[in-house]
Amino acid sequence: MKFVLDVEMGEDAFGGDAARESGRILRYWGGNLHYHDFKPGDGSDCYYDSAYTDVGGWRIVES
Predict the structure, then answer these.
(1) Contact 11, 55 (CB under 8 A)
(2) Nearest to 4 by CA among 58, 48, 44
(3) Which residues contact 20 (CB under 8 A, 6 or more apart)?
(4) pTM for this one?
(5) Domain map of the chain by residue range?
(6) Distances (CA, A) of 57 to 5, 6, 7, 29
């Protein structure tokens, strides 16, 4: 299996603050991953930046 994270940072990489925004997204969703079974097909399209804009998601896929 493979864990896939896809985050769209926009043309300006979160306004030039890509590291901070990416870290925020990872901390928030990392804390919620235990609610999922982590089987192929599981995932969420709910990654939000600090402006609450949908920027991507994660999924579990077969390798």
Answers:
(1) no
(2) 58
(3) 14
(4) 0.73
(5) 2-61
(6) 6, 5, 6, 9
